[in-house]
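ugh ok fine here u go
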Amino acid sequence: MDPAEGALQRFADVVGRQHALTDPDQQLPYLREWRDRYFGRAAMVLRPGSTLEVARIMEIASDTGIGVVPQGGNTGLVGGQIPSEAGTQVVISLTRLNRVRTIDAVGGSMIVEAGVTLAKAQEVAEEADRLFPLSLASQESCDIGGVLATNAGGVNVLAYGNARNLALGLEVVLADGQIWDGLRTLKKDNTGYDLRDLFIGSEGTLGIITAAALKLLPRPREKATALVAIPDLDQALKLFRLAEARAHSGLTAFELMSRLAIDLVVRHVADTRLPLSKPSPWYALLEVSSPDVEGAASRTLEGVLTEASEQGLISDGVLAASLAQANSLWHLRESASEAQKPEGGSIKHDISVPIARIPDFVRRAEPLVEAICPGARPVVFGHFGDGNLHYNVSQPPGMDKARYLSLWGRMSEAVHDLVSRMGGSISAEHGIGQMKRGELVRFKSDVEIDLMRRIKATLDPKGILNPGKVL
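structure:
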């Protein structure tokens, strides 16, 4: 038996044969991401059922030098969760680590394992009359470990922050199999380097998150939701400032969508429609939350819309009169990604710029895209309130998809160069993964890259944690 085969047997002994997958058909869901941009091969897919099993796997991997790719719900968008095509790495799926260990409603925290889905974490918090506010379109599938490993954002970052802001502590398995128990639920702990923040956003390249202590907040007693039509992006910026000034911290979402983004949703997603009298160049979805159950949120948002209409900032709008209507408005926004698939190739950009520069960015990016591919169609949507746009570009109708996608490098380089000139980031919430490794070294300083590599070499000296990702 060669060393590799011996290691695979040792892995299987740890998790049990039924959770050590070698059959290609059984492995397939773990080797391909949902957009079909990245596909890999694995010597084995392991499904451990406890932190101790993860630790034992990493001890064997460290002993044998086998690369390990941690994976949560496989909803990542930059290929960080997919193994290489060499077939020499093993995938560790954390979906069986799905227990809620503790919940402290009074203290405002809960401890959950990495395989708990985001939707489940929200549900558990709600049952305790608390709020876990992280919200993503993929929340039924994505896992807590994955959202922390990528520092996911979503629609509520404006009010509550990224995943990083909602984690109080972590449990992490290190490259050599040691377990760091940092599951503290303290709001304040100023005792040296913050190891928690080191692992959050590291995409599994420094350690494997197996559990997290999460922050819980008071639940809003009322939410008000509205969709409005906006003549141009300068007016969108003014509307955001107005809503922020009137609602203060009660403004929990301000989502932007271009006309094409909405058109594609209505065209391709069942049970969707534009609930306004006519199309508009731009739309915004606003949400205001309130601890008051006496209609405070509705009154605030209605006042914002009235004032915005008087100032000519919006041309039309609808304020949801029920939870069902609010959900239908959110469905328009949350379907923006899937609605692009039937249109053929789509070149994706997850960028951020200072909020005040969003209108200028969109105006300056369009001619860059047109020069590279005449007729390409920007599909713009995202989290206007925190400066994060998904600047996706769909292929011209009738163009060969493969030919269009061959332009990905040129187009992304042009868009990212513009983002950099405007003081922005080439990855606002999706991470680096495989997709943006080359771009990272173009925009990070030599000092930053050197520091990142030193940290990686210290925590993973054999380079076995998620090889080929980030750095």
